[in-house]
Write a structure and sequence with these properties.
With about 100 residues, this protein is an all-alpha fold. The protein has a single domain, classed as Orthogonal Bundle (Cytochrome Bc1 Complex, Chain D, domain 2). About 60% of the residues lie in helices and about 0% in strands. It is built from 5 helices and no strands. The protein is globular. The termini are far apart. About 30% of the residues have low confidence.
Length: about 100
């Protein structure tokens, strides 16, 4: 019985380890600032976006959003409610940056 349990556990951990590995030939992950920063245009607030937003996700996803000022405010408020760390002034600056850098189309 113990052999069966150990065999099943071993199979589980081997499967888990294999699934966690990157595919062969995949480029190594770059630092968050390199990947994310490449899609964020320069401007006041960019560094703050990099500091606050990269703790949970790649901030370059902002480039895919189609939001106006109030839409960015709502999204940033949602991120703050989900645990983003910053002051009210930080979040205001982030909203201002995102509104200017990624205006609604």
């Amino acid at each position: 019985m113990h052999r069966l349990v150990f065999a099943a556990a071993g199979f589980f951990f081997l499967t888990l380890a294999a699934a966690a590995q990157a595919p062969a030939g995949a480029p190594p992950p770059a630092a968050a600032g390199e990947v994310a920063g490449a899609k964020l245009p320069p401007g006041e607030g960019r560094d703050l976006v990099m500091k606050v937003c990269t703790k949970c996700h790649d901030p370059s996803i902002a480039a895919t959003e189609d939001l106006d000022g109030p839409g960015w405010k709502d999204l940033v408020n949602q991120m703050a409610a989900n645990g983003a760390q910053g002051s009210d002034a930080d979040f205001d600056q982030i909203v201002a940056y995102l509104t200017k850098a990624f205006p609604a189309k």
